[in-house]
Amino acid sequence: MITVTALPAFTDNYLWLLDAGGHAAVVDPGDAEVVRAGLAARGLRLAAILITHHHPDHIGGLLALAAETGAAVYGPRAESSKIKGLQHLLDDHDEVRLDALGITLQVIAVPGHTLGHIAYFEPTQRLLFCGDTLFVGGCGRLFEGTPAQMLESLDRLAALPPETAVYCAHEYTLSNLDFATTVEPHNLALAEEMARVQALRAAGVPSVPSTIAHERRLNPFLRARSAEVTAAVVAQAGEEASQKLGNPIEIFGALRRWKDGHRPRVR
User: Fold this and answer.
1) Phi/psi of residue 13, each to 5°?
2) Considering 117, 170, 178, 214, which one is annotated as catalytic?
3) DSSP codes, 94-113
4) Above 90 in pLDDT, residue 64?
5) Catalytic entry in 19, 28, 31, 57
6) Buried b vs exposed e over 148-171: b needs ≥16 C-beta within 10 Å?
7) 262 classed as catalytic
8) Which of 140, 174, 181, 204 is buried most, with the most CB atoms less than 10 Å from its CB?
């Protein structure tokens, strides 16, 4: 069995440490010192580094950790020109065998936040490490990709088994839920979830992981085709703009733009 530990970093990042039998892998080591401390506290040897995309807060500790530990470094082939130190270049549907930990990860291409973004899925325990693509209650900004790409990427993740644990890379849940309740102000389930997460965060407990089932139920970006979310997006757009929202991709794009301009009341 793999143990997954959150290593908080920067303001709101989570670096994910996977371990079994004294060996470990780390997902998106933006801060080498945080990873060193996590390994030392647990007496672990780093065997692998797993990168989802090229942003600095996800790769900042890669080179130092690889040099110090000899860990194998895996990451997206499509972003290899932007990530120094990748040793094993990954494409959609590839597998990553981590023999030291006794697991095999499946690679899922999820462009949108960046063009080469990938996610890692462990099918036995059903663990998903999705970087900045799917968040609890939200999704990543479209820095490089298109609404069509992100919608397809989220559809792929939403199709995973419902009990899959969603390990995203940021603690954005309160602001995401604040937006979700703006989209659906009469959704009592969202109000209850906001109260639950507020209590967790007040106690210093991460809101991550979520599950795919949970996200399908409450995340507006996984529900962009629903009548409720579609109606809210059309109403927000106004009469003239709403006439251009003729398909799910356009609805999703408008929803993401709405979120981009939203100023959360809670964080």
Assistant:
1) -80, 150
2) 170
3) -EEEETTTTEEEEEEE--SS
4) yes
5) 57
6) bbbbbbbebbbebeeebbbbbbbb
7) no
8) 140
Which one-letter amino acid corresponds to residue 99? D
| Catalytic residue (one of 23, 31, 54, 55) | 55
The string of pLDDT tens digits covering residues 65-87 is 999 999 999 999 999 999 999 99
* Active-site residue, 214 included: no
The predicted structure's pLDDT at residue 238: 79
Please give the full DSSP string across 174-205, using - where no structure is assigned: HHHHHHHHHH-TT-HHHHHHHHHHHHHHHTT-
pLDDT band at 61 (very low <50, low <70, confident <90, very high): very high
One-letter identity of residue 5: T
pLDDT over 60 at 53, yes or no: yes
Q: Three-state SS for 38?
A: helix
Torsion, CA 201, CA 206, CA 211, CA 213, rounded to 10: 0
3-state secondary structure 134-152: EECCEECCCCCCCHHHHHH
d(CA 85, CA 63): 6
Active site residue 53: yes
Crossing angle of helices 32-42 and 62-69, rounded to 10°: 40
Determine if the peptide bond prior to 209 is cis (ω within 30°). Answer: yes
Look up 57 and say whether it is catalytic.
Answer: yes
Q: What is the pLDDT of residue 239?
A: 65
**Backbone region of residue 67 per phi and psi (left: phi > 0; alpha: psi in -120 to 50; beta: other values):** alpha
pTM over 0.85: yes
* 55 in active site: yes
| Annotation marks residue 58 as catalytic | yes
- Residues composing the chain: 267
